[in-house]
Design brief:
By secondary structure, this protein is of the alpha+beta class. It contains 18 helices and 31 strands. The longest helix is centred in the C-terminal third of the chain and has 32 residues. The chain starts with a helix and ends with a helix.
């Protein structure tokens, strides 16, 4: 047992010691930085660079991007002053770009001044008297060993001289041969990146690498690092200064020097900063160099936008690190020559969208436009003709409405949105000094069509004329176009446009009146606007009928001892409702006119207003009445003045045994319905008029059916469901 405890203690100690190593190894296996060739993380124990083999010798990626760096204090300052979160120009370039963008390509041609050094691979191919196909690696002594030739020292030789040098050496042994010399895999060199880099450290890079490619490997300068003063140190001396703005703004790489082993790239702190906002192509914070002017800053920002007001620029400046002052000046020669200082905020203003010598036409017009103003210009000059007001959208909508209306009886005229409001348009006028806006309404029809001076107003510079459509403002009824169809026994059947305030009687009289054969009591007025309302009411009635019939079915089933009775009633209710919903409704939309049966002249016709889309039908005089239902014979009968309801029933031989005399009703020719529930007078007193229909429902033992016929049949007629249809359902 003691041995087991000792073993467990030792095992636990080993695991505790190995845990950090194991965790680091697991993280390294997943961290791209552990496999990036060319990066050189520092060993935590020795403090020396961990040299990762260069492989092909080319620079490959930088470490994974860390979380975004916090904004600079000046960025927050600019955000408070301008309300904009501006970036520091140039830093996002390294964040967006791949690290390999700045790396030299493996197959890129070598410059002639490339110096051969240890680690380079020399490819030698000779043919003729000698056959050589050899890849030689330059050793640390700078030598290569060429078979049949010997050891040759090539380190320090420029690439342009290498072919001649090897030809001379081989010719000492062989004659009459051809030679081709090139370089294969290039050596890696060690450089140092210090200062305010995103990833400072030691890096193995290709021997063809430059300052720019090394910056890509390091992720570029940090937010606090300079982009404009990057130093290349060699042998403890500054041999070059690199300005990234030269490359980012102009693509200039002339100062991008090739690196040598042991070179140090130093990134100092960021220099002075200034911000540019407003009508500028690149709103950003820019790093300054000593002595730079406003022209230099605006050039770095890409110059002014098209809408920039070159005559107005403001400069917010920190004075003596205690005060902020604002200066306003123009971008003339003196303004552009102003020196920019650390902490400046330059704001470029846009020009005003207002055009001084123009009149604007907008709204429901064919072509909205800005028209040059001239003295004495009137509305009719701005809108010279009617065609200028009808937009292409209007004609497209009208054409579509016409195509839809073809073959539709109810479509008296195309319904088109965007029709002009001829009664109202407005001039929007701004006072030049106070900037107060005044609205001046005018009658568009009088101004454009009639050239009435009272409406054809004189325009001023800057006026905005707006034309409205009918949908924009609700119009009086009389101002809208209304089309009505007259049919039947009238002197001039057809489609007519109503005059303002014209009634039905006035329209019929204007068109010549009715013929002598017109049956005025049977006149039918159908209205498109009534269809939706009546359909909604019909749906509500069907729902109420469903509830009522369900209740009476339950009552009937309770009074029936057998189960079959209740099921039978439920089936009847279901079938009846389904049949009613399928009935034709050709007469829906009819409006009851409440006509007197004795009406005989158009002068006595109701003087009611008509709506757009109304259909007024005058049937011919009829000499018959109809009797349907529980009678011995169903057939039309000739009308006999003074003969009552009972007399007509007697002419057909009376009613059948199944007749429900308590539910008899009459459908009037004018669309009204008479029933015993609407009058205390006996049936014998009911006067029958030509065109009437007498309905005799069937008697039934089922309370459900009787209730339906008594309370609902007349209601459904109001919505155009024919008597014959109801009779067919209930028979």
């Amino acid at each position: 047992m003691m041995r087991m405890r000792v073993f467990l203690l030792v095992l636990a100690s080993l695991l505790s010691l190995c845990a950090p190593v194991t965790g680091w190894a697991a993280a390294a296996s997943q961290d791209p930085r552990s496999t990036i060739t060319g990066s050189s993380p520092i060993d935590a124990t020795s403090g020396t660079a961990v040299r990762t083999p260069a492989g092909s010798g080319s620079t490959t990626g930088k470490p994974d991007a860390p979380p975004p760096e916090p904004p600079l204090e000046f960025q927050s300052f600019v955000s408070q002053a301008s309300g904009l979160g501006l970036p520091v120009y140039g830093h996002d370039f390294f964040a967006r770009a791949s690290s390999s963008m700045g790396a030299p390509l493996e197959d890129a041609p070598l410059s002639a001044d490339y110096v051969i050094g240890p680690g380079d691979e020399v490819l030698i191919r000779a043919w003729g008297q000698v056959d050589i196909d050899y890849r030689a690696k330059v050793d640390r002594a700078g030598n290569i060993n060429v078979p049949k030739v010997g050891v040759l020292h090539v380190a320090g030789t420029e690439y342009r001289q290498l072919n001649a040098y090897l030809r001379t050496a081989i010719s000492r042994v062989f004659r009459n041969f051809e030679l081709n010399v090139s370089l294969g895999e290039l050596r890696s060199i060690q450089v140092f990146v210090v200062g305010h880099a995103r990833y400072p450290g030691t890096y193995l890079v290709s021997s063809m690498s430059t300052v720019l490619s090394a910056l890509f490997a390091t992720g570029g300068p940090s937010n606090k690092g300079s982009l404009r003063r990057i130093y290349l140190r060699r042998n403890n001396q500054v041999v070059a200064e690199f300005d990234l703005y030269d490359f980012l703004l102009r693509g200039d790489k002339s100062r991008d020097m090739r690196l040598l082993p042991g070179d140090v790239i130093q990134i100092p702190p960021v220099g002075g900063l200034a911000a540019v906002v407003g009508s500028i192509n690149t709103q950003a914070i820019f790093e300054l160099k000593k002595g730079e002017s406003l022209a230099d800053l605006l050039g770095a920002a890409g110059g002014l936008t098209t809408t920039a007001a070159g005559q107005k620029v403001t400069l917010e400046r920190i004075v003596e690190r205690s005060l902020r002052k604002v200066e306003e000046f123009t971008l003339d020669t003196d303004g552009l020559a102003r020196q920019v200082r650390d902490g400046d905020i330059v704001r470029v203003y846009a020009i005003s969208p207002r055009i001084e010598n123009v009149v604007t036409l907008r709204g429901n017009v064919a072509t909205p436009a800005n028209v040059p103003w001239r003295k004495g210009m009137r509305i009719s000059d701005l809108i010279p003709e009617r065609a200028a007001l009808l937009s292409p959208d209007y004609w497209n909508a009208r054409n579509a409405a016409v195509r839809e209306a073809v073959g539709r009886e109810s479509a008296f005229k195309p319904r088109v949105t965007g029709e002009l409001n001829w009664n109202y348009a407005v001039i929007e006028r701004m006072h030049p000094t106070t900037q107060a806006v005044t609205l001046i309404p005018f009658n568009l029809a009088k101004a454009v069509l009639q050239r009435d001076p009272s409406a054809n107003l004189v325009l001023e510079p800057g006026d905005v004329v707006t034309v409205f459509g009918r949908e924009d403002l609700r119009q009086p009824v009389d101002s809208n176009d209304r089309f009505v169809r007259l049919e039947g026994e009238v002197r001039a059947p057809g489609l007519y446009r109503l005059l303002p305030g014209e009634t039905a009687r006035q329209l019929v009289k204007r068109l010549g009146g009715v013929t002598p054969n017109a049956y005025l009591f049977g006149a039918e007025l159908t209205r498109a606007s009534a269809l939706g309302t009546q359909q909604k009411r019909l749906d509500e009635l069907l729902a109420r009928l469903d509830v009522q019939m369900s209740f009476e079915t339950v009552v009937a089933s309770r009074n029936n001892t057998g189960e079959a009775g209740g099921k039978d009633e439920a089936d009847i209710r279901k079938n009846l409702l389904e049949s009613l919903r399928k009935l034709p409704a050709t007469g829906r939309g009819r409006v009851l006119l409440h006509l007197e049966p004795s009406i005989g002249s158009i002068e006595a016709f109701p003087d009611f207003p008509l709506e757009d889309g109304d259909r007024l039908y005058f049937p011919p005089v009829t000499k018959t009445i109809n009797v349907v239902g529980a009678v011995l014979k169903e057939m039309p009968l000739s009308y006999q003045p003074g003969l009552g309801l009972s007399g007509y029933l007697d002419k057909l031989g009376g009613m059948t045994k199944e007749a429900d005399t308590s539910a008899i009703y009459v459908q009037r020719a004018d669309g009204s319905v008479w029933s015993r529930h609407q009058s205390f007078w006996p049936l014998s007193s009911v006067s029958i008029m030509p065109g009437d229909t007498i309905v005799v429902p069937y008697e039934t033992d089922r309370t459900l059916w009787r209730k339906f016929l008594r309370d609902w049949a007349q209601i459904f007629y109001q919505f155009g469901i024919s008597v014959a249809a109801i009779h067919a359902v209930t028979k």
